[in-house]
Amino acid sequence: MQIEEAQREVRTRLMGGFAGQLVSGALWLASAAVSTWGSRTAGMIVLFAGGFFIFPLTQLLIRLMGRSAKLSPENRLEHLGRQVAFTLPLTLPLVLAATLYDPNWFYPAFMIALGAHYLPFIFLYGMWQFGVLAGLLVGGGALLGLYGPDVFALGAWITGVVLVVFAVLGRSVVLSEERASALA
């Protein structure tokens, strides 16, 4: 299987990352809400603990959409997907260190880690849009951490909205490709 075929299969099966980003966006928004109207600590726990459920909830959403996330045996990109899944949890000690230095850096640091985690998705899905997403999250996290207002949950609100927007964008890219393919 050629790389472009493997990327197309990943993109199509996973709807351009729609389910995963929608689940992640909902989690970030839930964390933002808990941090805003509850406590900072509870909001951090929601994001951290909820992260363990992103993969199973994403798989469930893909099935509910009538799709299968299982790639063909010839598609070697499945291995890259697994490796990429571990990049974000491995950066959490850095997020913790930033948070211990300044609690207001929790969400900005997490944004930077999440954005960096999205860089390999450019190759995995064959979609440049993930580069824009990565840039927005990394740049946004850095700007919020260095120059942002002293609003604890602002980064979580921004990230949640950005993830949902990019979920819809990824889905629309795939649906557009599917329509074009059906017409051809």
Question: Oligomeric form of this entry?
Answer: single chain
Number of helices: 9
The overall average pLDDT, rounded, is 93
User: Compute the gyration radius: what is it?
Assistant: 17 Å
Note the main sheet: none
The total count of strands amounts to: 0
Structure write-up:
This protein has 184 residues and is an all-alpha fold. 79% of the residues lie in helices and 0% in strands. The protein contains nine helices and no strands. It has helices at residues 3-13, 18-37, 40-50, 54-64, 77-101, 106-118, 121-125, 129-147, 154-183. The longest helix has 30 residues, at 154-183.
Short précis:
The protein starts with a helix and ends with a helix.
Describe the SSE topology.
Elements lengths: L2 H11 L4 H20 L2 H11 L3 H11 L12 H25 L4 H13 L2 H5 L3 H19 L6 H30 L1
Helix pairs in contact: 2-3, 2-4, 2-9, 5-6, 6-8, 8-9
Features:
about 80% helix; about 180 residues; single chain; mainly alpha
